[in-house]
Every structure is written in structure tokens, then in C-alpha cells.
Automatic annotation (TrEMBL):
InterPro entries: ATPase_NBD, Gcp-like_dom, KAE1/TsaD, Peptidase_M22_CS, TsaD. Keywords: Acyltransferase, Cytoplasm, Iron, Metal-binding, Transferase, tRNA processing. Its cofactor is Fe(2+). This is tRNA N6-adenosine threonylcarbamoyltransferase. It is an enzyme of class 2 (transferase). Required for the formation of a threonylcarbamoyl group on adenosine at position 37 (t(6)A37) in tRNAs that read codons beginning with adenine. Is involved in the transfer of the threonylcarbamoyl moiety of threonylcarbamoyl-AMP (TC-AMP) to the N6 group of A37, together with TsaE and TsaB. TsaD likely plays a direct catalytic role in this reaction.
Length: 348
């Protein structure tokens, strides 16, 4: 008999509630995916303010739950299990989601699972492209995370091959956008400007690609600084800033490094499927270059549609469904959120 899994996501500035159906053959079907974003409340600060995010989650949680059930045509009593983001993320924001999930689970007397936000970004791809192969590589690229992950079992076995040593790619986008006078968050406006620019116009550095650098780690702080120094130099000389060319050249450097290391990791570990997810996965140049390089290397590329790449409840519900299908133990109602939860811990 199929089961209904509810997912709650509140790790940053999106309140997400997703509903999925776990079928008898362990395939997962998306029924509803509702998100309330507080991004507009953070825009004037140029970044997420934790206290503002927590308050926004409190205000949005119940209305978002109600919209999800209305969309799916279900009642709370139809839910068989609840999954909630236990970490990583902002402490206060996580606590709102965890508290809500505990309340619903206790009231309905159903199992509760605390799951990993990062693993959710991988699991969400199964809602669009079906089950993951027995072994795959995941490139997770977002505002707070840039990681290469080897996935042997989405419900229990994920190994981190590399991570960012400073700024995540999405964070670098936000900071470069500020330098160029573009709005927050920086990803979409830079991508839009880059379409009219020349990615080869400025030779920005490719961080951590030298022979002595860690093979699968990333660094975007130097790239961000290089863009800022280039713009400052042009302004001192009284030159107009070619925003489109700067955006395109910056974006080319990011996509080049991300795809280069992902292909290298896939070849070294004998993996023939690459999943790219996280908010930056919606970037057009990253998807384009990844498709080109994966085709050349004989690697299957899977990228969820943009709506599924950003933080949402569907990804947590999807991961919860895989955890349930694998028979993983449920969480006790006294578990705590962990803002620094490592990706190796898929569920708690």
C-alpha cells in the first residue's frame, strides 16, 4: 500500500512544505510543493538575517502547510510519516521547522524523521528523473554550500569528496552582484547580464585548480576579490564598467571550475551519472557547460528543474520517502536541530 510523506524545510529563508506518495515499488510521486520565501525581507540587508528568517518561518508555516494539503487534495489524517530538515542551516530557522514537525507528528501519532538538507537536494532529482543509479556523483551548489558528493545510497551512504574552503559559489554570486550594482540575490541578475556579455572578455582566476591544490575542494573568495579589484581599477581610470562582460567572465570562471572538478571526480571514482542540484544549478551557463563536458566524457547528466533546485519542502519529503523505504529508524520526539549536521548523517 502506498504511503504519504510530508516534508518540512526551514533551514534558511524559504518555508517549504512538500507532499509525496511513496509507491509499493519505492518510486516517489510529487503531490504538492508549496514555498513561502522571505527573500524580499532580506534584500535591503544584502543577505539573510537569521532573526528575520526565523520570524518569517513562524508566520508562514501553518498557511504553507494548508496550501500544500489543498493543492494535493489531502487531509492531515492522510499522512503516514513526516520528514523535517534537521540541519545544516540557521539554528533559529531550523528550530521553527523541527518544532512544527514534532507537533504534527505527535498530534497525528505518526513516525517523524529528521533528515539532512544537503541530501535532500540530491533526493529531489528522483521526483523528476526517477530512481538514482546504485552509485552516482552529486555536485551541490547553493548560496551556502559547494560540495562534491559520492552517493552510494541516498538513504544512508553519502561521502564528501570535496567542499568549499571559503565562499560558496552562490555566496560569491551575491557579493559580485553587489559590486556590479545588481540586486540580491545575485544569481539570476548575473545570469541575465551574462547572456549579453563575453565570457572570455576578462581572464578571472580559477581558484584551487593548481597542481598543489586539493583535488576536489573549491575556493571562490579569490575570484570574488579579483572581480572587485578589476571593477575598482576601471573606476579609478574613469572607465565605464562593462557589467555584462564582467558578469559573463565571472560566471564562466565559476562554471569552468565546478564542471572541471565534477568531471574529474566522476572519472576517478568510476561514476557515470552526475546530479547537479542546489540553487546555483538553475544557472544557464553551468547547465550548458556541464552538458557539454558530460557528453564528451560519456557521463549522464541529471539536473532537476529550477523550482526543485532551490530550497523547498518537496526535497525533504522525497528524502523522507527514501529513508522510510529503506527502513531507517525514526527520530525520537526529543531530537534537536543541528546547524552543522554533516552530509554523512542522512537521517537522525
Amino acid at each position: 500500500m502506498s504511503r504519504i510523506i510530508m516534508g518540512i524545510e526551514s533551514s534558511c529563508d524559504e518555508t517549504g512544505v512538500g507532499l509525496v506518495r511513496l509507491h509499493d515499488d519505492n518510486t516517489v510521486e510529487l503531490l504538492a510543493d508549496e514555498v513561502a520565501s522571505s527573500v524580499d525581507q532580506h534584500a535591503r540587508f544584502g543577505g539573510v538575517v537569521p532573526e528575520v528568517a526565523s520570524r518569517a518561518h513562524l508566520e508562514a508555516m501553518v498557511p504553507t502547510v494548508e496550501r500544500a494539503f489543498e493543492k494535493a487534495g489531502l487531509k492531515l489524517s492522510d499522512v503516514d510519516a513526516i520528514a523535517v530538515t534537521a540541519g545544516p542551516g540557521l539554528a533559529g530557522a531550523l528550530l521553527v521547522g523541527v518544532a512544527a514537525a514534532k507537533a504534527y507528528a505527535a498530534a497525528l501519532d505518526i513516525p517523524l524523521y529528521g533528515v539532512n538538507h544537503l541530501a535532500g537536494h540530491i533526493a529531489v532529482d528522483t521526483l523528476q528523473h526517477g530512481p538514482l543509479p546504485d552509485r552516482c556523483l552529486a555536485l551541490l551548489v547553493s548560496g551556502g554550500h559547494t560540495q562534491l558528493l559520492l552517493v552510494d545510497d541516498i538513504a544512508s551512504e553519502i561521502t564528501e569528496l570535496g567542499s568549499t574552503v571559503d565562499d560558496a559559489a552562490g555566496e560569491a554570486y551575491d557579493k559580485v552582484a553587489r559590486v556590479l550594482g545588481l540586486p540580491y540575490p545575485g544569481g539570476p541578475p548575473i545570469d541575465k547580464a551574462a547572456k549579453n556579455g563575453d565570457g572570455a572578455a576578462i581572464a578571472f582566476p580559477r581558484g584551487m585548480t593548481g597542481p598543489r591544490d586539493a583535488k576536489f575542494d573549491f575556493s571562490f573568495s579569490g575570484l570574488k576579490t579579483a572581480v572587485a579589484r578589476w571593477v575598482e581599477g576601471a573606476e579609478r581610470r574613469g572607465e565605464d564598467i562593462p557589467v555584462d562582460d564582467v558578469a559573463a567572465s565571472f560566471q564562466e570562471a565559476v562554471a569552468d571550475v565546478l564542471t572541471m572538478k565534477a568531471i574529474r571526480a566522476a572519472k576517478e571514482h568510476g561514476v557515470d551519472t552526475l546530479v547537479i542540484s542546489g540553487g546555483v544549478a538553475a544557472n544557464s551557463r553551468l547547465s550548458e557547460l556541464a552538458a557539454e563536458r558530460c557528453a564528451e566524457a560519456g557521463i549522464t547528466l541529471r539536473v532537476p528543474r529550477p523550482r526543485l533546485c532551490t530550497d523547498n519542502g518537496a526535497m525533504i519529503a522525497a528524502l523522507g520517502a527514501h529513508v522510510v523505504a529503506a527502513g531507517r529508524p525514526r527520530a525520537s520526539l526529543d531530537f534537536s536541530a543541528n546547524p552543522a549536521l554533516p552530509v554523512q548523517i542522512v537521517s537522525i
